[in-house]
Amino acid sequence: MVAMELLDTAGQEEAIQREGHVRWAEGFVIVYDITDKGSFEDVLLYKNLLDEVKKPKNVTFILLGNKSDLDHCRQVSTAEGEKLATDLACAFYECSACTGEGNISEAFYELCREVRRRRMVQGKTRRRSSTTHVKQAINKMLTKISS
Ligand SMILES: Nc1nc2c(ncn2[C@@H]2O[C@H](COP(=O)(O)OP(=O)(O)OP(=O)(O)O)[C@@H](O)[C@H]2O)c(=O)[nH]1
């Protein structure tokens, strides 16, 4: 079971840089509108802003192309979305917040799974480094005792 708190950044750059919840959040959903090429071009901008706020940590995120119900007005192809997601090494979904089509639940499950995977990896790194510190301390003590 995972308890999620979802916050909307309202899309303003200054808000993303300023707001504490961006620093606090563990995972992000970057959303563009498939009928608006400009919103797709902004994805990189938002990714870079998140990188800036979260550094030195890597940003955990998924890419979501919204408004798939408006396929007749599409300006961004599915292939373009997939290509960007591959370049950014994140999961990609198309969906419609309006009709619910596309796999919105799966997108959020995947984001949760990715957050957990990264936590596990970071936990292992932390544990390994603390074991190293304990070993070094014991070695120091033994060296002192024997000298
Ligand atoms: N057809 C369709 N319209 C949508 C969909 N999602 C949102 N909209 C419409 O798009 C408009 C903008 O939606 P918002 O939820 O305000 O978008 P936003 O990105 O949060 O906007 P900001 O508040 O500026 O950040 C509204 O008129 C929504 O009804 C969708 O999946 N399909």
TrEMBL record:
Substrates-to-products reaction catalysed:
GTP + H2O = GDP + phosphate + H(+)
- Spans traversing the lipid bilayer: none
Organism, as annotated: Hymenochirus boettgeri (Congo dwarf clawed frog)
Taxonomic classification: Eukaryota, Metazoa, Chordata, Craniata, Vertebrata
Q: What is this protein called?
A: small monomeric GTPase
Give the similarity note: Belongs to the small GTPase superfamily. Ras family.
Q: Report keywords, A-Z.
A: GTP-binding, Hydrolase, Nucleotide-binding
One Pfam family assigned to this protein is: Ras
UniProt entry tagged with the keyword Nuclease: no
Task: Please give the InterPro entries that the UniProt record associates with this protein.
Answer: P-loop_NTPase, Ras-related_GTPase, Small_GTPase
Enumerate the SMART domains for this protein: RAB, RAS, RHO
Q: EC number(s)?
A: 3.6.5.2
Matching entries from PANTHER family are given as: RAS-LIKE FAMILY MEMBER 11
Give the Gene Ontology MF terms in alphabetical order.
G protein activity; GTP binding
